[in-house]
Amino acid sequence: MISFGSVFLELVFGHVPGLPRPGEEIFTDDFAISCGGAVTSASAAALAGCPAGLCTVLGDDLGSRVVREYCRGAGVQLSPSATVHRRAAGITVVLNFDNDRAFVTHVPPRPASEQPEVARWREVLRRERPAWCY
After folding, report:
1. Distance (Å, rounded) from C-alpha 11 to C-alpha 98?
2. Per-residue model confidence as pLDDT tens digits over 28-71
3. Which residue range forms the structural domain that includes residue 31?
4. Per the domain annotation, does 99 fall within a domain?
């Protein structure tokens, strides 16, 4: 199984009373750092015992380093992924409140000179021939 797509470093704030108004700061004791995006399905498959890989772009940023470490621990193969010398992982702030969530996400710009992801994904599919992809 190979999961294709972008990855995100998620900063998750839980159980806040609501969204802060402009100029207001709110506090919570519930906080976690996690990985999101394509890494979610790849790690779920690996944790269920399925051989899993991740086809994404990983850079030299903090988010990419966290994704690499997480995938190593979960048993997700990163060989289908490309490595670049720039920021690649998105960053998402997640606020949990009123039994719902709100998100603020930053996606680093991709240089126009880089090969489109869809073309690289086709190459990975031809080379790896996974039984299943997501």
Report:
1. 18
2. 999 999 999 999 999 999 999 999 999 999 999 999 999 999 99
3. 2-20+27-128
4. yes
